[in-house]
Amino acid sequence: MAEIDSSKFRVVGAEYKTIEPIINKLTLREKLKGKPIFSFIILLAIIICCIFSGKIGNHNPSGFYLENLNNAPNSEFYFGTDSLGRDIFSMIWYGGRVSILIGLLSMAIITVIGIVYGCISGVSSEKVDAFMMRTAELGNSIPTLLLILLIASITGKQNVFKISFVIGITGWFGLARIVRSEVRQIRNSEYLMSARTYGAGFGHIMIFHLIPNFVSPIMFVVVSSISSSMSMEATLSFLGLGLPVDVISWGSMLSLANKALLLNTWWVIVIPGFFLILTLNCITNLGSFFRKETNKIHSNL
Amino acid sequence: MNEKNIFIKKTTYRILGFVFAMLILSIVVFYFARLAPGDPLQSFYGDSVESMTAKELQAARVRLGLNEPIFIQYIKWIENAFHGDFGLSLKYKIPAMSVVSPLIGNTLVLGGTAYILMFIMAVLLAVACAVNEDSVFDRLICKTGTVSYYVPPFWLGILLVLIFSINFKWFPSSGAYDVGKANDIINRIKHMVLPLVVMIMSHLWYYAYMIRNKLLDEVRKDYVLLAKAKGLKKSEIMWKHCLRNALPTIVNIMAISIPHVLSGTYIAEAVFNYPGLGSLSIESAKYHDYNLLMLLVLITGFLVIFSSIIAKTINEIIDPRMKETEVSAWQK
């Protein structure tokens, strides 16, 4: 066998190492394409303004400016004043804190109950599973508003934590169903069996094996539960069963809407509602972006 | 196994499921109402409790069975409930049933009209979007639809009142009819317009979007290609072929949507002060009128569960495919 002399050979197609690949350097504009950048910026702006509400508001949000009742938006009161003489511009940022806090707290309660209930239902035997799912379906089939009315009237006067609890405890049925169906798919997989044979308890299996598997499918539901909770809080406050007028939130600001109708003061109605809808839309946009991203990752696998 | 047997078996299962659901619902409602702060005696006798002596109170407790264990109380309550006796309404001082019964009709008319109109509009909108997929029209509708879905219905209601009844004075802002015009149908319809708009707008896009996506799934299928090759028009394919195949999904969505629509009805009733179950239940929640509230929750639950069972049955009748798959699942 003749010695291989590299000079006699021409390596075909090996030039790729010498050629600098054309790296598609994305411009900033291309990188941001398809991402909900507007929603993100608006949401961030609203949250920052709410955090620094003391610096931004030019009036005391709970102060009654009795000589300025029902002022239309002007240079002193940027968004006008309501029928109690409070400055709406300051109240918006201050009330945003409470509204967003209620959304986040309710989301936490919904997520915890939904995941635990769904996991228990998913790993237990057929009969227990059927019973638990029937119950959840039943809860899902009754209008949420009515359940909340029942519980809200029992719990009496509301505060931020109570109302989050009431909203959270009636909102987890849908999430539990999704979690349960995801757990059903993986309950007989080998790694769960091995974890069980090693003696892992239910809590360990749930946190380290089950939850990582269904984080992405439930992400959208979890994120949109923030917005639905905020909307529910506003509805309850408007109906007079939520936060009292002296606890400022976007919902309790809207509870003055009926009075505003009689006085025909549009700014009391439109401005808090506008901020509420803006926030809800931004949150949902971000949520659906996450869902699209996770779906992409799934299909690549 | 023949078809008749399966049908009987399934019907029994469904009825059993219904009874089970109502039972659980009644237990939950009863226990919740008993959890309420304050004396249940208050809800039977109202303010006169305060002027009673201790002996009278004890006697009243025994008479009402409040000294017995709670499950015996529950059984008694259920027994009375079957006779149509749900106790006195605290606020109105008359039996709860007679407060509720004249209002059921109002709610059903309002909710039913909204339900039917909403789905007719949802199907039309979905077809219009699916035919013009990805056009400017479709995108515009999609964007406005998603934004509109997050408009809280009560806020939309107030806004409509502000615009159309206070500033333009086109429609009345509250009630079911003007004083003395109870039999005037046009007057009643005028009062229904704004609540209907609120109820339809708050859920229309959500369902239209679901139907649109289902239609787009259908459009990608092979039979559409065949229909196109035959030379059918686009709209003809959509109406005659795609919509037919999407019909079971639509009926399914209609079944799921019942609690949402009812929720919407309640909010609309509360905003527009329309005499119905919704405004009544919010009022009774405010006044802690538990006997009435319990009855209202039970009625709503009954309406929802019953109608979803009907929807399931209809779905089986119109879609033979579903029957087959379910039968094979049955025999496994």
**Spans of chain A with pLDDT under 50 lasting ≥5 residues?**
none
From the N-terminal CA to the C-terminal CA of chain A, the straight-line distance is 47 Å
Biggest interface: A-B, 40 and 48 residues
Q: Please give the count of helices of chain B.
A: 13
Q: Quick one: CATH class of the domain at 103-289 in chain B?
A: Mainly Alpha
Beta content of chain A: under 5%
Low-confidence stretches of chain B at least 5 residues in length (pLDDT < 50)? 325-332
How would a crystallographer describe the biggest sheet of chain A?
none
Q: What structural class results from the helix and strand content of chain B?
A: mainly alpha
Record field, number of beta strands of chain A: 0
Give an account of the 3D structure:
The complex is a heterodimer of chains A (301) and B (332). Chain A is 68% helix and 0% strand. Chain A has 13 helices and no strands. Chain A has helices spanning 28-31, 37-51, 53-56, 88-123, 126-141, 144-155, 160-169, 173-186, 190-197, 202-239, 250-254, 257-263, 266-300. In chain A, helix 5 (126-141) runs antiparallel to helix 8 (173-186) and helix 8 runs antiparallel to helix 10 (202-239). The mean pLDDT of chain A is 83. Chain B has a domain at 103-289: MetI-like fold (Orthogonal Bundle). In chain B, helix 5 packs parallel to helix 12 (290-318), helix 7 crosses helix 10 (234-272) and helix 11 packs antiparallel against helix 12. The longest helix of chain B has 39 residues, at 234-272. Classes of the chains: A mainly alpha (301), B mainly alpha (332). Chain A binds chain B through residues 134-135, 138, 140-147, 149-154, 156, 227, 231, 234-235, 238-241, 254, 257-258, 261, 264, 266, 269-270, 273, 276-277, 280-281, 284, and chain B through 17, 20-21, 24-25, 29, 32-33, 35-37, 146-147, 150-155, 158-159, 161-162, 166-167, 173, 259-260, 262-263, 266-267, 270, 281-282, 284-286, 288, 290, 293, 296-297, 300-301, 304-305, 308.
